[in-house]
Amino acid sequence: MSQPNATLSGPPAQGRPKMLNHLAYVTHDVEGTVDFYTQVMGMPMVSTVIGSRVPSTGDDFPYFHVFFRLDDGSTLAFFEAPGLPRANPKGHPAYDIFDHLAFEADKPEDIHAWAAWLLQNGVEITGPTDHGIILSIYFRDPVNDIRLEITCPLVEDWNAREDAAARDLRDWVEVKNSAAETGQDVSEALLKFIAARDAEQHDRAVEGPDDSLPRASR
Ligand SMILES: [Fe+2]
């Protein structure tokens, strides 16, 4: 593990990270997690991402990513992937890929400034990766091996998509449960669902701009 270059220590020109954007953990039970955070903790489910390939690492992995909003706009996030063991933090590669802490920066240029700053300090980075709703770089806390991210929202409503999030959750759970009930491979069923969903979104994009899906300002 490389160590930061001590000669470049001190506050970076772009300042400190301004706030927590999201802290993300792996969960083996997304429905139970949604119930607890929305009903017990009172945090609304405000955004979701469903994917079959992790954009920042290229890993093939059907996953459901969900965000719960705090009062200041910061969020707590979880990932569910099929076949996760219960509460076994290092027993499945998903925990290494998905567990991370993300700081928010003001603008896309700051992400590039951070990337340069980290590289100058001997910290390896992945990205910048454009996720459509946010632009991110990834790296590891070289002391504690915690996966870190610095991210900049590219669309204003990235953490205010309650209706779409509720739809995504319903669809994900439906596909997962019906595959399990009918004895199908859950990962395969989810990959098929994600491919159909991606094709539908592609068709919508080709047909023209949709006001309900604001495009990233790049
Ligand atoms: Fe993230």
UniProtKB/TrEMBL annotation:
Gene3D superfamilies: 2,3-Dihydroxybiphenyl 1,2-Dioxygenase, domain 1
Domain VOC positions: 19-153
Protein's recorded name: VOC domain-containing protein
CDD domains: VOC (cd06587)
Family annotation (InterPro entries): Glyas_Bleomycin-R_OHBP_Dase (IPR029068), Glyas_Fos-R_dOase_dom (IPR004360), VOC_core (IPR037523)
Pfam families from the UniProt entry: Glyoxalase
